[in-house]
Amino acid sequence: MSKNPYEVLGVARDASDSDIKKAYHKLVMKYHPDKNPGDKDAEEKFKEVNNAFDILKDPQKRAAYDRFGDAAFAGGNASGAGNPFGAGFNGFAGGAGMDDILREAMRGFGFDGFGGFGGGRGTAAQQRGRDLLDNVTISLKDAYFGTTHTVKFSSNVTCDKCNGNGTDDGKPAPVCPRCGGSGMVQTRQGFFAVEHPCPECNGLGRKIDKKCSKCDGTGAVHKQRTLDVKIPAGVEDGARLRLAGQGEAGQNGAPAGDFYLDITVKPDDKFVRDGNDLILKTDIPFTILALGGEIEVQTIDDKELTVKIAAGTQIGSRLRVKGHGMPNPHRSGSFGDLYIEVAMTVPTKLTEKQKKALEEYAGAKPGKKSGWF
Ligand SMILES: [Zn+2]
Ligand SMILES: [Zn+2]
């Protein structure tokens, strides 16, 4: 599990944005890898601090954390984006190890098209890559089995010539001597210390002597990309999948953004979904309802199923068939149930013999002449 971001930054739950920023800057300077070369603990702390700030700097992420805690950010730890949110999601294995899901909690994030959270992490000039958002509509059957959505798009990716370092030789540029790698310097104005981007390195924290010719020192290039997004079995309508680190590459060595896929599950003609359960309205001959018997139904995965009908089964009642609902997206190997909702068919063509039998039945009931259906 990830750590409580408030504790990591050492701020109160109701800390103001500027308090959070201050705490972050202080810690980031303290644990910066360039100031603690080879110190694994410091590196770990540095990551934690960045991750905590990533949540708290964004009002919506912060609100989501306040409301849902870690659950708001459930998901795998994928690429090198420094995804803070550990903890897994059972049953979502596979793919490139990058599929995680942000469910209901993240629904209200309010993206408009491609765009996103951006900004703020790392040094002043290190712009975290933009998050990307796509959406797809799938059938209930696809949701049952799980499917793959292939997205083609172009975005910034880490420059392969310099590994994102922006340098001609591809190695990390030396730390800027003026700001010590933070990218920020302070000047005093009366009582106040004002922070601004370091003029020596333009806020990069590093000084590139000779820029990479391919990316002009930015560490990122524009490229056509194809992503195969694995949609897990049982996915819910309105779910948002997150592929950590699959968004735009960051500028100047900043982490990449994330890729989000919003999923719409189309209503099915036959099955109505209720959580992980499925409801199948089924016409059953009134004789079977009255006398009892068996019917055949077709399940969502196209299997024939024999269902026993007890004598005297009422219209509108629901018969539970265990384990034939949707896969539980949050628990591998677990399924919801199928409910047969009983409807009745009334025969329109009766043979003489059948008619007679029914008339006899109707006649057997005192005071009634013309049948009960
Ligand atoms: Zn500098
Ligand atoms: Zn480059």
Primary descriptors:
4-stranded mixed beta sheet, 14 strands, binds zinc ion, single chain, 373 residues, HSP40/DNAj peptide-binding domain
So how many helices?
7
What is the CATH homologous superfamily assignment of one domain? Urease metallochaperone UreE, N-terminal domain
CATH class of one domain: Mainly Beta
Please state roughly what percent of the residues sit in beta strands, choosing from under 5%, 5-15%, 15-25%, 25-35%, 35-45% or over 45%.
25-35%
Describe the structure in brief.
About 20% of the residues lie in helices and about 25% in strands. The chain has about 375 residues and is an alpha+beta fold.
Topology record:
Blueprint: H1 5-9, H2 17-31, H3 40-56, H4 59-68, E1 99-102, E2 132-138, H5 140-145, E3 147-158, E4 184-189, E5 192-197, E6 220-231, E7 240-243, E8 259-265, E9 271-274, E10 277-285, H6 286-291, E11 293-298, E12 304-309, E13 318-321, E14 338-345, H7 352-364
Parallel strand pairs: 2-8, 10-14
Antiparallel strand pairs: 1-7, 3-6, 4-5, 7-8, 9-10, 11-12, 13-14
Helix pairs in contact: 2-3
The structure holds zinc ion (2 copies).
One zinc ion binds next to loops.
Could you walk me through the main structural features you see in this protein, from its secondary elements to its overall organization?
With about 375 residues, this protein is an alpha+beta fold. The chain has a domain at about 270-365: HSP40/DNAj peptide-binding domain (Sandwich), CATH 2.60.260.20. The chain has helices at about 5-10, 15-30, 40-55, 60-70, 140-145, 285-290, 350-365, and strands at about 100, 130-140, 145-160, 185-190, 190-195, 220-230, 240-245, 260-265, 270-275, 275-285, 295-300, 305-310, 320, 340-345. A four-stranded mixed sheet has the order 1-7-8-2. α2 packs antiparallel against α3. The model is unreliable at about 75-120 (pLDDT under 50). One zinc ion binds near residues 183, 200 and 205.
